[in-house]
Amino acid sequence: MTGIVSHDADAKEATIRGGTTLEDAGVGLQERNLEMPNLGDVTMHIVTPHCDGIDSMS
Prior knowledge:
Strand order of the largest sheet: 1-2
Helix content: 10-25%
Order of helices and strands: EEH
Radius of gyration: 11 Å
Number of helices: 1
Structural class: alpha+beta
């Protein structure tokens, strides 16, 4: 399971699941007006899991 879990446009924050590529995160964030304009050529990198329990949700 990958993708954006939640976002707060006012705070300019988003929670993204581990395993999501920066490219996919960028598309989802852009749809929410939270784009990352300066990723360069690192879009194939993957967000690593964080020990907050979100990655174990199904």
